[in-house]
Structure formats: structure tokens, C-alpha cells
Amino acid sequence: MNGYRTIRETDDSVETLYEIQKSRFITHIRHVETDEGARAFIQAMKKQYFDARHNCSAYVLGERADKQKSNDDGEPGGTAGNPILEAIKKNALTDVVIVVTRYFGGIKLGAGGLIRAYGHAAVLGIEAATRIEMTPFTELHVTIGYDLLATVEHWIRQQEIRTEEADYAEAVTLHLLLPPAEVESRLIELRDLTSANFQSEEGATRRIALPC
Questions:
Q1: For residue 173, what are the CA distances in angstroms to 146, 178, 192, 208?
Q2: Max alpha carbon distance in the chain (Å)?
Q3: Which residues lie below 8 Å from residue 203, measured CB to CB, with a gap of 6+?
Q4: pLDDT tens figures, 96-145
Q5: Which H helix or E strand runs over 94?
Q6: Which of 54, 63, 66 is nearest to 25 (CA)?
Q7: Class of residue 95 by CB neighbours under 10 A (exposed 0-12, middle 13-18, buried 19+)
Q8: What sequence ranges are listed for the domain UPF0029 (predicted)?
Q9: Pick from 142, 141, 158, 139: which is nearest to 194 by CA?
Q10: Which residues pair with residue 27 across a beta bridge?
Q11: Are 3 and 63 in contact (CB under 8 A)?
């Protein structure tokens, strides 16, 4: 299981505004996970900004960012959708859709100007969103006696290991969250720390959202 970068999932999209040569570029960015979700968001923006000259878009989907699409929506070929797509790719994001709405101000920007404007507008949207790293962690359930609890808890704090709420019964079960590659080395450390007086069970590997 690999990690990947995306933006935080919210009910509302993030909105930014960029103005140049009297043209207004309104950017909306949102977390989506399917083609259908991306297309629905693009259509919603076109409906909301029906009076705009252009609603250009791009999206990237999948854990490997292998689904990519862009649309110039009437701008000269390659001057709008592709710069938006490149902004997403340069930030190594996936499961993201961006729509940049342009209200034409009467002054032509030229192909180079359009590329820069749409790219910059997309970057502003990305910078305004909360970016996260979906990072794999493996659950390791460790059961110890109360006599070892303080020692193990000190080790956990010292090593800055992520944990979930412990279970307290006749013994204590600590729920550790470890990068998959660290599981074996952490078990060796625990054996040394407790003289092998513990029981462990490896749980599922899942992704956790971390700020990036």
C-alpha cells in the first residue's frame, strides 16, 4: 500500500479569485474520487457560472494519479485545461478537480498570457486548500502487564509512535500505528524493552491523513 497526496474532503469547494487585464479568474477546487464525481462538480460550476465566457477544468484521480483529464472549454487549445492539470501534477496531488471560471475583461491575453493566468489561478486554489498526505500505517496490538506500562508508554513517547485509545482490563492492550516497514524493528525493540513479556497481534494496514 502506497501513500498519496490529496486535499481534505469537505462539503464545499475552496474558492479563490485572480484578476489580470480586467479578466477575472475564479477557481474552485474540491476532493473527488470518481470520474462521475469530477464531472458532476464541473457541471455544477458551469451551471453556477452560466454567464461566464469559459469554465475550464482538469482533474486527477486514483492512488497512482493515473486518471487525468482536462478541458479548455472554448479557450485556444492547450491554454487553459492543460495549465490547470500541470498545476495539480506539479503539486503531486490526486483525487482533485479544479474548475477555473473566466469572465473576459475585454483585453486579450494571448496564448502565453492565458497559460500563465490559468496556471496561476489553479495554483492559488491549491494553496488555499488543505493538503494532506494519505499515509499507510499498520496496526500493532500489544498486550502487557501493568508493571510494564510506564516503561512502554515512555518508549512510545520517546519514539513518537502514534497510538489509539488503549484497552484496560486484567492486562493493558496498547494499539500502535506504525509505518509498515517499521513493524519488525519495533517488535524487536519491545522484546528488548520488556524481556519479551508481551503479546502482540498485527492488525490491518490503512491510510491516515497527515498534514503536508
A1: 10, 16, 18, 21
A2: 77
A3: 138, 139, 140, 141, 175
A4: 999 999 999 999 999 999 999 999 999 999 999 999 999 999 999 999 99
A5: none
A6: 54
A7: buried
A8: 142-196
A9: 142
A10: 16, 100
A11: no
Q: What dihedral angle (degrees, nearest 10) is formed by the CA atoms of 42, 44, 50, 53?
A: -20
pTM over 0.85: yes
Residue 158 C-alpha cell reads as 520517546
The domains located in the chain, with CATH, are 4-129 (3.30.230.30), 133-211 (3.30.70.240)
* Residue 99 · residue 133 · CB < 8 Å: no
Element (H, E) at 4: strand 4-7
Q: How far apart are CA 110 and CA 113, in angstroms?
A: 5
